[in-house]
Specification:
It is built from one helix and seven strands. With 87 residues, the chain is mostly beta strands. The protein has a seven-stranded mixed β-sheet. Strand 3 and strand 4 form a beta hairpin.
Length: 87
């Protein structure tokens, strides 16, 4: 399960980068920063880079930036089942 976030634009992520809600980035609890993932939802996919920690809500594995979520059509419901593959 994945969700998305974007209200934190401009703040520093756990990796030290400034968060850009339009960038193709994501948060994961344990994957190393810089890891690239292909995230697929509903037949659409996007490549994201892990640059933050989270999500901290039970049952969720990824927090996508707003731009990444929009690219795969996840913004309508806000949460959805995705397939994530390390590249």
């Amino acid at each position: 399960m994945a969700s998305y976030y974007g209200n934190e634009s401009g703040r520093r992520t756990a990796s030290g980068q400034r968060f850009n809600q339009h960038a193709m980035t994501a948060a994961h609890r344990t994957l190393p920063f810089g890891t690239k993932l292909r995230v697929t939802h509903g037949g659409r996919s996007v490549v994201v880079t892990i640059n933050d920690r989270g999500p901290f809500i039970r049952g969720r594995v990824l927090d996508l930036s707003t731009g990444a979520a929009r690219a795969i059509g996840l913004t309508g419901r806000g949460v959805g089942r995705v397939v994530a593959e390390v590249m």
